[in-house]
């Protein structure tokens, strides 16, 4: 805007009183001081008129983005923020017209949000109807896949009116749970039937094993042949692996000589297996030590190495059950520390410290504070999970969800513990007296 026009705008919407520059009242807002006269009154008025032009450019830019955007709802807070600024922004100009334009944009956005919620409501009602139509299905696998797909679509669908949210969530959840409860009951019945068949096979195995070491060769031979005929008469369909396992046990008991040979081979295998498991344990302990040593390396180098160690871990065979959980937990925590440090460094790069507050000690303190904030957020998530677990009804249909919640709670506890240990590590580096983190 030219200086002459700027001056006219300044006098139209502002004035000088004493050594103060004032904005004239507009709408329901009273006149207010926006600044002081520095030297020349006219230049001071023009200065604040020019500030208004800059503010108007922000409004114009935002409204243009809203006009061309399909997701208008994402701009609501920005519009409200600019409306709030109108009440206190130090400038002179036609704030009333800006307020009206922003108010119109606000209404347009709210209408768009309402339309989206109506659309989301229609989508969720359709998903509920589809889920309810499937809840009595006996096509277990296909229906399971369809319901999983419906659940994904439900999650992806945006929000609806809060007054309807709980009711519709419960309807959808109930429809899904009806099917999965029926599915569970069906397979439990099937399992019970299999169990009765297995019991018959096991009874024959027990009888054959009871005589397998007998030295009454002819009598034992007749007994085992009779048991073989009974085995054939049982029938029934079992899973292949289970059937093979039972048959192998029965067959092994039928031949005394091969049984002796089998015991010998098993003895050899046992010794070999123990050595194999011990070697695997040493390999895994070595990987734990390597992962823990990565804390002394720069994060950008440690992260790919940690991933390499994770890949190496998968190639190592099993260890004894009593050792497995502990060594895995140690390795998991060691790797978690590396990845937590990587996340921390990524967070810090996005939030550089102010100039003059960037010493090594300042950097360490900033990281400690960031970790504390992360712990706070983790504890908030943990509290929500524990609350949900406490509210979960103790019925069989909720066991899968209960297991999932317990797994997440365990993971968050480990995350919190890992971050606390990192804080202690950073404290030692900074020379700060260590205090227990709540």
TrEMBL record:
Keyword flag Coiled coil: yes
Coiled coil start-end: 52-122
InterPro entries given in the database record: DUF349
Top-rank taxon, per record: Bacteria
Keywords in alphabetical order: Coiled coil
Name this polypeptide is given: DUF349 domain-containing protein
Organism encoding this protein: Rufibacter sediminis
């Amino acid at each position: 805007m030219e200086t002459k026009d700027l001056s006219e705008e300044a006098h139209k919407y502002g004035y000088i009183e004493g050594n103060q520059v004032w904005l004239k009242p507009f709408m329901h807002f009273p006149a207010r001081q926006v600044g002081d006269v520095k030297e020349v009154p006219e230049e001071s008025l023009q200065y604040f008129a020019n500030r208004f032009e800059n503010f108007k450019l922000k409004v114009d830019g935002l409204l243009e983005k809203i006009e061309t955007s399909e997701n208008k709802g994402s701009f609501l807070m920005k519009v409200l923020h600019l409306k709030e600024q109108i009440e206190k922004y130090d400038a002179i100009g036609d704030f009333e017209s800006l307020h009206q334009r922003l108010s119109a944009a606000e209404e347009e956005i709210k209408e768009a949000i309402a339309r989206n919620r109506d659309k989301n409501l229609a989508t969720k009602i359709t998903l509920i109807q589809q889920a309810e139509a499937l809840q009595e299905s006996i096509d277990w696998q296909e229906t399971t896949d369809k319901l999983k797909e419906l659940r994904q679509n439900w999650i992806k669908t945006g929000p609806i009116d809060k007054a309807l949210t709980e009711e519709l969530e419960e309807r959808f959840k109930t429809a899904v749970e009806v099917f999965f409860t029926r599915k569970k009951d069906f397979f439990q019945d099937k399992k019970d039937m299999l169990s009765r068949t297995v019991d018959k096979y096991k009874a024959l195995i027990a009888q054959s094993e009871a005589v397998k070491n007998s030295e009454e060769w002819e009598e034992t031979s007749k007994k085992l042949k009779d048991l073989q005929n009974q085995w054939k008469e049982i029938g029934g369909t079992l899973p292949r692996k289970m059937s093979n396992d039972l048959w192998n046990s029965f067959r092994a008991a039928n031949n005394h000589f091969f049984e002796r040979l089998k015991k010998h081979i098993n003895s050899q295998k046992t010794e070999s297996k123990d050595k194999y498991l011990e070697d695997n344990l040493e390999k895994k302990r070595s990987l734990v030590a390597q992962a823990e040593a990565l804390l002394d390396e720069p994060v950008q180098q440690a992260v790919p190495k940690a991933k390499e160690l994770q890949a190496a871990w998968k190639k190592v065979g099993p260890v004894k059950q009593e050792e497995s959980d502990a060594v895995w937990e140690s390795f998991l925590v060691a790797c978690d520390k590396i990845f937590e440090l990587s996340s921390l460094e990524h967070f810090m790069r996005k939030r550089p410290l102010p100039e003059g507050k960037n010493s090594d000690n300042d950097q360490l303190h900033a990281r400690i504070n960031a970790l504390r904030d992360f712990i706070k957020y983790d504890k908030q998530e943990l509290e929500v999970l524990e609350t949900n677990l406490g509210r979960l009804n103790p019925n069989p249909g909720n066991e899968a969800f209960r297991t999932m919640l317990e797994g997440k709670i365990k993971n968050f506890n480990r995350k919190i513990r890992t971050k606390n240990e990192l804080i202690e590590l950073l404290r030692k580096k900074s020379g700060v007296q260590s205090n227990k983190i709540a």
